[in-house]
Design brief:
The protein has about 350 residues and is mostly beta strands. It has helices at about 1-35, 80, 105-110, 255-265; strands spanning about 125-130, 135-140, 155-165, 165-180, 180-190, 195-205, 210-220, 225-230, 235, 245, 250, 275-280, 290-305, 305-315, 325-330, 335-345, 350-360.
């Protein structure tokens, strides 16, 4: 009688421990599922409940000695009596439970304005820097970048519809020239979340905009920066150790949007189909390449303020994952962009800005 009672007590103890384990597991899953849900859920239907778990303790069956099998031979080779051990394939483990899609993933996708960082053009030479003696990389094609005259637009605030695939948001583009300095800022938002902040700041010189620092921050990522060290004659980055020689007219991935229009405003011969503007553009990821813009058409663009007649410039990619850019600049708005698209590679769904309103100061 006593062994039976002890077995029943053991079953109750194991059942209680298993129940506590299920409760603890459910509490952990609930806690982790609540992390980072800062985006509306894709579906309003409730999540399915996990099936109830039942635990039953099974007593091991007593070992039973089996009689040795009879053979038709008087003697059995030792190799058959003791076959070599064979590897036993492990039982396939259940795939780990995947967390539900993070709601902010859509916002992060929208934040990838530039898609993959474009591949830098091949290095053609290594040149010494005058200050410090460090070596920097030279970008192919820089000799074809001319110095243009520029006519800077007045201070302005442009508000865009920002779209990447099926995702839509808003983008505020702020251009603030003050004396010999300027600041240019682009902030992108999706459903109240700031998914993108790019800032270009610097001065002006004979070639137009002269950036000193460019920063690029995406949703839940660290800020990356490109530093234009004009006294040292080089461009450095906050992350990569890559350095490039600093040349006249160099632009960052935000300032080119104003520099292109400032060149066209000052050069009437660049306002017709077939004209070309070549810029040296540097990103915050340690990338640098030559962007050659071709004027391909005069087109009407639908904006929030109505249709505008704009000049369309296109930068064609040089490599499979290089950046393709299309930009429409409006002569009536000091040649600032009223629409721009950017795409890297055939599988990139692309990014677009389309003007909703513009205000000059």
């Amino acid at each position: 009688m006593e062994p039976l009672l002890s077995m029943q007590a053991a079953r109750r103890r194991w059942t209680g421990l298993a129940g506590l384990g299920v409760v603890a597991l459910a509490a952990h899953l609930w806690a982790f599922s609540g992390l980072e849900w800062v985006w509306p859920r894709p579906s309003t239907s409730p999540l399915p409940m996990a099936p109830a778990v039942q635990v039953r303790v099974v007593e091991p069956a007593p070992a039973v000695a089996l009689p040795a099998p009879r053979t038709a031979f008087a003697e059995t080779p030792a190799a058959e009596l003791h076959p070599p051990a064979t590897a036993v394939a492990p039982r396939p483990s259940r795939p780990p439970r995947t967390a539900p899609p993070e709601p902010a993933a859509a916002a992060r996708a929208m934040a990838d304005i530039s898609a993959p960082a474009p591949a830098a053009l091949p290095v053609t030479a290594v040149l010494p820097v005058a200050a410090g003696g460090a070596a920097v990389e030279a970008v192919a094609g820089l000799d074809a970048v001319p110095r243009y005259r520029t006519e800077m637009p007045p201070a302005a605030t442009l508000r865009y519809v920002m779209q990447r695939g099926a995702l839509r948001g808003s983008g505020d583009f702020s251009w603030r020239p003050e004396g010999e300095r300027y600041e240019l800022r682009l902030e992108g938002r999706v459903a109240g979340l700031t998914v993108l902040t790019q800032v270009s700041s610097g001065t002006f010189d004979a070639a137009g905009i002269a950036p000193l620092r460019f920063t690029d921050q995406r949703l839940r990522r660290g800020t990356k920066a490109a530093n234009f060290q004009r006294e040292a004659g080089k461009i450095t980055f906050s992350g990569p150790s890559t350095e490039f020689a600093l040349r006249d007219g160099v632009q960052d991935r935000l300032s080119w949007m104003v520099q292109l229009g400032a060149i066209v405003a000052a050069e009437p011969k660049l306002r017709g189909v077939g004209a070309k503007v070549v810029l040296y553009v540097v990103g915050a990821n340690g990338d640098a390449s030559v962007w050659a813009f071709d004027c391909v058409a005069a087109e009407s663009v639908t904006t929030g303020a109505g249709a505008v007649d704009a000049l369309k410039f296109v930068r064609e990619p040089r490599e499979p994952y290089d950046t393709q850019v299309q930009v429409w600049i409006d002569p009536a708005q000091h040649y600032l962009p009223v629409r721009a698209t950017q795409k890297s590679g055939a599988n990139d769904e692309g990014f677009e800005l389309r003007l909703q309103s513009a205000e000059t100061h």
